[in-house]
Write a structure and sequence with these properties.
The chain has about 140 residues and is an all-alpha fold. It has a two-stranded antiparallel sheet with strand order 1-2. β1 and β2 form a beta hairpin.
């Protein structure tokens, strides 16, 4: 073989080596880029998971606060119902005391000879004209 053939063979081998070298380098670059992209995606996914966990914790806290507020409201309703019942009971007791007081006053007036039974006031006592009932005015036409 002559030299030109050998030169072409060497050139072909160099060209093939360069092509292989370019392919291998390109593949390594591609793998490096893929690894870098995968690592970036892992970090981004970890950040998204962390945000999701934070949102879940915040949702739990809000639910707990809502449950506490609901329990407080129910407690307040129970307390209001208890106070209302107590107020009704005391009102009833007060009415009972008032009725007893009126009975005792009527009984005392019935026993007291100095009290006019119709007017239930001491005989001869002066009554303020503005405080007299209409029946008192009717019974005393002079006034």
């Amino acid at each position: 073989m002559d030299t030109a053939t050998w030169v072409w063979i060497v050139v072909a081998i160099v060209v093939i080596a360069l092509i292989i070298l370019l392919l291998v380098t390109g593949r390594k670059r591609k793998e490096a880029f893929k690894r870098k992209r995968d690592e970036s995606n892992r970090q981004h996914a970890a950040e998204i998971r962390r945000k999701a966990e934070d949102a879940e914790l915040e949702a739990r806290e809000n639910e707990a606060q809502a449950l506490r507020a609901k329990a407080d409201a129910e407690k307040a309703q129970v307390e209001a119902a208890r106070l209302s019942q107590e107020a009704e009971q005391r009102q009833s007791e007060a009415q009972g005391f008032r009725t007893d007081s009126e009975k005792h006053l009527h009984k005392a007036n019935a026993l007291d000879p100095d009290v006019d039974e119709k007017r239930e006031q001491p005989r001869g006592a002066m009554v303020d004209p503005d405080q007299r009932s209409d029946t008192t005015r009717l019974n005393n036409p002079r006034e």
